[in-house]
Amino acid sequence: MSLRDLLNALSDFGSGQYIIENWGYAHANAAAYDVVDAEPLAAYGFDDVQKFFEGSLFFDAVEAVLDAKMLREIKRIKSGF
Q1: DSSP of 10-40
Q2: Is the pTM above the cut of 0.85?
Q3: Rounded to an integer, what distance in angstroms lies between the CA atom of residue 11 and that of residue 13?
């Protein structure tokens, strides 16, 4: 199996259906939501996208100076400072 085959299988709506119904995770393929029963969608909060994202926190872009500083700090941490 090639990497392409794996990625195609994982992004298939059937895989999405399984992941949503059995693991409770969201899936990138919107067609997967069309084949999932309404009950699991509601249980996991996927039935109302707006409501689902209300409690989410998204980051805005940071200034280049701060971005460079954060990158240096991450590299320092990874090196075991």
Answers
A1: HHSHHHHHHIIIII----S-THHHHHS-HHH
A2: no
A3: 6
